[in-house]
Amino acid sequence: MAAVAVQQVTDLLKNNLSLSQHTAEPAVEAKPTYTQPDIQYAPDEDKYKARTARRLAEDPSLPSTPLPEGFPKKLESPLVWEGSDFKDEEEWVYNLTPEHLKEIDDALKHFRGLEKPLGHLSVATFPLPTLGPVLADLARILHSGRGFFVLRTIPVDSYTREENAIIYAGVSSHVGNLRAVQDAPAVLSHIKDLTQTAPAQTIGGPAFTTDKQVFHTDAGDIIALFALETGAEGGTSRISSTWKAYNELAETRPDLIKTLSEPWPFDGFGGTPAYTLRPLLYYHDEKVIIQYARRLFTGYLALPRSTDIPAITEAQAEALDAVHFLGEKYNLGLNFQKGDIQYINNLGVFHARDAFADTPEKHRHLLRLWLRNEELAWKTPKELEDLWKRLYYTTTPDEQTFPLEPAIRKGAQGKAAKYA
User: Which DSSP helix (H) or strand (E) runs through 383?
Assistant: First the structure.
């Protein structure tokens, strides 16, 4: 009998164990935590030099690394320049004449008379008989010349905010016929310090502060920036040739060209997917293209780098700093004035901004468009094709909106704002 009882207890324990194995909550797998290199949004030249020295000491063969297959040893183009090459701003500034300004005013009235949504602004609906051909020629300079120009100057105080937006988009349609969405369905965004009006935990991008913006690119082919107002002090707009930076790296540190051309983990800052992988640098259709923003690898203010996605490597940290400091080394500071529109080839020229200060009377305020000229556009690398389709081909003219008041873009909102 005792043996039977023991067997019954044993069977019961086995049954309970089997039952618990089937009904217990599944174990939650802990997310890994990744440690970033010692790098922040604001580049530190001493850290950069120390990292370079350390990596070269560990592997002296790095400067002998072959360039990625097909990448050129040296680029030859008007797009290879340094700031000291330009002696006078008249080399890149196109001054609007009184006749041009009347033509713009007439085009504004013509578009108003059509009673169409602003998304219908185009070469056809904003006619510029003499200025239009000039802008078409300047667009060629963006794509096959030095890669930038400034249009001076729109009399912004003579118009309302909406009228300035119409003029800006109408004139710009003669440079690039497509406008990209920036916060779908909005195709217009504002670059302005919002730290005095928005809670600190909602700001995750330097465009909405007075901080220095480091060298980077935006999304899309052409960046257009329209100065409604300049700051009281600082805020110099700086541009630099990525092709010049490429040539120096290809000659001195080809290993960093290789690093830049390999996949990097772009932070989704808690979105879906959590991160994406793609290169920063491409050689496509005989053109070098760079597309990146530093904060996506280092975080910024209320959007710190996510700790549960792969960290960047020491090589990537060095490459990120190398690109920035080469941008600084060869930069051109633009005398960006109120009413100016600055156009930049976003694929071959990267840009930055000095820190600035506002006063109650003068608040730096820019409007931004991302444009594409379908006739002159560079071919898009396959890794960027989906992004470009979302930018330029997902909204109709009837759907496009032009917000007239500044707001933090969704992609630059702090996590407190994103997930409140």
Answer: helix 382-392
Strand, coil or helix: 50: helix
15 confidence band (pLDDT: 50, 70, 90): very low
pLDDT band at 3 (very low <50, low <70, confident <90, very high): very low
Digit-coded pLDDT (tens) for 66-86: 999 999 999 999 999 999 999
| Sole residue written with tokens 């506002």 | 358
Residue 199: φ, ψ to 5°:
-60, 145
Bridging pattern class, strands 93-95 and 148-152: parallel
- Rounded to 10 degrees, the C-alpha dihedral 30/36/41/43 comes to 180
Q: In Å, how far are 271, 304, 349 from 419, measured between CA atoms?
A: 10, 14, 34
Tokens of 407: 């707001």
Q: CA-to-CA distance for 7 and 411, rounded, in angstroms?
A: 65
* Lookup result for tokens 């052409």: 222
d(CA 267, CA 292): 11
Mean pLDDT of 297-316: 96
Nearest to 194 by CA among 183, 203, 185: 203
Structure tokens at 298: 């280092």
Written in H, E and C, the secondary structure of 283-308 is EECCEEEECCCCHHHHEECCEECCCC
Token pair of 229 as six digits: 């107002």
Cα separation, 304 vs 297, whole angstroms: 9
Quick one: how far is CA 329 from the chain centroid?
20
Q: What one-letter code names the amino acid at 354? A: D
Q: Does the pLDDT at position 43 exceed 50?
A: yes
Q: H or E stretch including 2?
A: helix 2-23
Q: Give SS3 for 240.
A: strand
Q: DSSP characters for 99-136? A: HHHHHHHHHHHHHHHHT--GGG-STTTS--TTHHHHHH
Question: Do residues 331 and 238 make contact, with C-beta atoms less than 8 angstroms apart?
Answer: yes
Name all domains of the chain by residue range, CATH numbers in brackets: 45-63+71-418 (3.60.130.10)
